[in-house]
Design goal:
The protein is an alpha+beta fold. It is about 55% helix and about 10% strand. It is built from 20 helices and 12 strands. It has helices at about 25-45, 45-70, 85-90, 95-100, 120-130, 140-145, 155-170, 175-195, 205-220, 225-240, 255-285, 290-310, 320-350, 355-370, 380-385, 385-400, 430-435, 455-460, 475-495, 535-550, and strands at about 105-110, 115-120, 135, 200, 405-410, 415, 420, 425-430, 495-500, 510, 515, 520-525. The strands form 4 sheets. It has a 5-stranded mixed β-sheet. A 3-stranded antiparallel β-sheet has the order 4-12-9. Strand 1 (about 105-110) and strand 2 form a beta hairpin. Helix 8 packs parallel to helix 19 (about 475-495), helix 9 packs across helix 10 and helix 9 runs antiparallel to helix 13 (about 320-350). Bound molecules: protoporphyrin IX containing FE.
């Protein structure tokens, strides 16, 4: 089949005498080339036309890959044209990631139109995380639909810094102290639940539920009901499942993304209602803060009051609507749920396998409580649990929940002297290699909490990238360390943890964050916290602590 000659693009303005090579550079020369192309195009069949289009598309894809790749490590050619390693990305494997990190400090892949550069040395990771001029956080396309485009996490530069400033007050020491009683209450309820189970079971779903309940109670206090918590805990995994790297551009009913968006909207609606209740408590009933929402609304109230007394004073925090509050609280849940569940799985699996660590934690727990296991948690008490805290830190180093943090390049970014990441590329600083750097952490693949006793500056400053660094560093960092230190101490004091290891226990499953591949099979048994304590010590010390309280 031929194309109709009358549909000429070039028209009839082509001089007949333009034929010599130098004229290629002239207007007439260009016209000749166009004319020839047009003639060629007209002489093609539909099949030839489509084959030519495919060849041009594939060549463009390969050439762009080569240009963007430059000198860095990565497949010589895009082995799977256009799609690249898309199929592997649907089922990510830790070993494949590790091989990529080991292939060079900068390596690349290209999936569809996305060119991805992975930085796997600690210095490059830090440099990227601390370069807001060149990069901003990047989320998979569907995350924007799920979190809503208006969400604060998509702000950049000054707008982001200003918004964050109004949230920082929710995670300072004074605020953290407020959340402890509600956290402890739910830690106790779940301890009871875990120790009442008959026989071993998978703890991956148990920990996901525990962490969801702890987070939601910290965020919404008593404004949220048990049923609402259960609903969110049961369905949250659908949000994680929707966050695949590449999705269909529109949300089709009854697909993973549709369910993800539905659950997110329902959850935000619950948070909106909680925010309304919290405003009544704080603004109308002059109630006391018991959760993050209350604290946020108290800060708004204080700022308004200060401003009305002194209109010249800068308003540090503005009035946020219930919808805005619900979106922010949802980002907290979104940022915390998978990472915290991951930490819980590894932490409790590791300690259950290490009686020496358990003994030291128990000893410390009774010591800081003067042998009275009923002393309630407080920030001051948690701050005294240095060894327990080291165990949490080491677990985060040994099995960091977040392996990589994707960023997108805003303008060409000279990442090294020899490589500039192109605008629009995805640039991924990796956290795992920095935390397993043998120059800083000797014997990095062994779990050694004692290494933190004499921690050097490098162990914290240059390599401690568990929570990222720079303007987007994790907002919940101190909250996580406080909650897990308190929880680990309490649970080890009051329960014996039995892990049922399988050949997959030490293998890493990637599901947004990382988990033991066998989903962690455990059983918990109640224990008397004072069972190993000398009877004389029990009596004298408990009475001392009671006297002190009186
Ligand atoms: C074990 C638990 C957690 C880990 C390992 C973790 C890790 C991280 C990492 C690596 C980042 C990216 C930092 C960067 O780009 O430099 C991040 C960001 C963030 N995290 Fe966490 N996180 C955890 C728990 C939490 C919790 C409990 C909350 C809230 C209560 C939270 C709130 C956030 C927020 C809001 C951001 C985005 C900050 C911004 O863009 O300004 N995270 N987290």
């Amino acid at each position: 089949m031929s194309f109709n000659a009358s549909s000429s693009l070039a028209g009839d303005a082509i001089p007949a005498n333009v034929s010599s090579i130098p004229q290629f550079y002239t207007k007439e020369g260009a016209q000749i080339i166009l004319n020839n192309c047009w003639n060629f195009y007209q002489s093609m069949s539909w099949l030839q036309f489509f084959l030519t289009l495919i060849v041009i598309g594939l060549s463009y894809d390969q050439i762009m890959y080569q240009i963007r790749k430059g000198v860095i490590a990565g497949p010589r050619f895009k082995v799977w044209p256009i799609i690249g390693p898309f199929l592997e990305s649907l089922d990510p494997k830790f070993e494949e990631y590790k091989a990529k990190w080991d292939s060079g400090e900068l390596s690349c892949v290209s999936i569809f139109h996305k060119f991805v550069v992975i930085a796997s040395s600690r210095d490059l990771a830090r440099k990227i995380l601390a370069s807001p001029r060149y990069v901003k956080p990047c989320v998979v396309d569907v995350a924007i639909k799920i979190l809503r485009p208006t969400n604060w996490v998509f702000l950049d530069g000054k707008a982001h810094t200003d918004y964050r400033r109004s949230l920082n007050g929710l995670f300072v020491q004074k605020a953290l102290e407020i959340y402890i009683p509600v956290l402890e209450k739910y830690m106790d309820l779940y301890l009871e639940k875990f120790t009442n189970y008959d026989g071993p079971r998978k703890f991956f779903p148990e920990f996901r539920e525990l962490l969801c309940a702890l987070s939601l109670r910290t965020f919404c206090g008593d404004h949220i009901t048990d049923d609402q918590i259960q609903l969110i805990a049961d369905n949250y995994f659908k949000i994680t499942a929707a966050l695949e790297l590449v999705n269909f551009p529109i949300i089709i009913p009854f697909t993973k993304t549709w369910y993800g968006k539905k659950i997110a909207d329902e959850t935000m609606k619950i948070f909106e209602d909680c925010a309304a209740k919290s405003k009544v408590l704080i603004n109308e009933q002059n109630g006391k803060s018991g959760c993050i929402m209350d604290e946020w609304i108290s800060l708004m109230k204080d700022a308004k009051l200060k401003h009305s007394e002194d209109p010249e004073s800068r308003l540090l925090i503005r009035e946020f609507s219930n919808r805005e509050i619900s979106e922010v609280i949802f980002t907290f849940l979104f940022a915390s749920q998978d990472a915290s569940s991951s930490l819980a799985c590894w932490l409790f699996q590791i300690v259950a396998d290490r009686p020496d660590v358990v003994a030291k934690v128990r000893e410390e727990q009774l010591r800081v409580r003067n042998n009275d296991p009923n002393v309630p948690l407080s920030l001051d008490l948690i701050n005294q649990m240095t060894y327990t805290n080291d165990v949490v830190k080491e677990s985060l180093r040994y099995r960091p929940p977040v392996l990589m943090v994707p960023y997108v390049v805003k303008q060409p970014f000279p990442v090294t002297d020899t490589y500039t990441a192109p605008k629009g590329a995805m640039l991924i600083p990796t956290l795992y290699p920095a935390l397993h750097d043998p120059e800083v952490y000797s014997d990095p693949d062994t779990f050694i909490p004692e290494r933190w006793e004499n921690a050097t500056g490098d162990m914290y400053k240059r390599n401690w990238l568990v929570f990222g660094t720079g303007p987007h560093v994790c907002l919940g960092k101190n909250y996580v360390l406080m909650t897990f230190t308190g929880m680990l101490g309490k649970y080890l004091m009051n329960a014996d943890l039995v892990h049922h290891p399988t050949p997959l226990s030490e293998e890493i499953k990637v599901f947004a964050t990382i988990f033991p591949k066998d989903d962690l099979i455990m059983e918990w048994h109640k224990r008397d916290p004072l069972q190993d304590v000398n009877p004389d010590d029990k009596i004298s010390n408990v009475s001392t602590s009671v006297e002190a309280t009186a």
